[in-house]
Design a protein that fits this description.
This protein is of the alpha+beta class. It contains four helices and eight strands. The strands form two sheets. A four-stranded antiparallel beta sheet has the order 2-1-7-8, with helices on one face. The protein has a four-stranded antiparallel beta sheet with strand order 5-4-3-6. The longest helix has 17 residues. The C terminus is likely disordered.
Length: 194
């Protein structure tokens, strides 16, 4: 029996952006919902799912090819919302900035995965950062109050210069399989700006 891994591709906001977001949720109800420390906040660009480990080089090549055709672009985190209800409820932060470039990158990534016979989630792409899988941990009133507080959230922008292919191992733990730079050279330090 061959080994398998659950794979996904993500963009990682820099630490300054993550810190700004962490400050924004401090004191909210969702701040008390446990989060996996080894899983930094990220924007998923492709969920590949469970594949045979022999397919990991194909996934790596697909991500590299998609990044080679994508120019660096600027994003920020803004607003918030919720997917699902009850035990399946997820609270998320929205994405602002050059969302058209992000969607174009996702389309190219999907094309590269498909060309190599790899599976991927084909639902309409909705860029976001999952803040917490609240499930039944928060009451509807608590979730509504948190969302009201976060709807006006506007974080610092950053230049997206690359992405990461992740494997989710039992536990679950998140392991970076490969890092890929976008084609354009980022001028100046890759730091968050206001």
């Amino acid at each position: 029996m061959s080994a398998t891994s659950r794979l996904f591709v993500a963009l990682l906001p820099p630490q300054a952006v993550q810190d700004h977001l962490a400050t924004a949720i401090t004191g909210l109800h969702l701040d008390a919902v446990p989060r996996r420390p080894e899983a930094p906040w990220h924007i998923t660009t492709a969920f590949i799912g469970e594949v045979d480990d022999a397919a990991i080089p194909l996934a790596t090549a697909a991500v590299a090819a998609a990044c080679a055709t994508t120019t660096a672009f600027r994003l920020s985190l803004a607003g918030a919302g919720r997917f699902g209800r009850g035990r399946y409820s997820v609270v998320w932060a929205g994405v602002d900035g050059d969302v058209a470039a992000l969607v174009g990158h996702v389309a190219e990534l999907r094309a590269q995965l498909g060309a190599r016979g790899l599976p991927y989630d084909q639902r309409q792409y909705r860029p976001h950062v999952t803040l917490a899988r609240t499930g039944d941990r928060l009451s509807p009133g608590q979730s509504a109050a948190d969302l009201m507080s976060l709807r006006a959230y506007s974080g610092p922008s950053w230049m997206v210069s690359g992405c990461v292919l992740y494997a989710v191992d039992p536990g679950p733990t998140y392991r970076a399989v490969s890092h890929h730079a976008l084609t354009a050279e980022v001028r100046g330090p890759d730091t968050a700006t206001r």
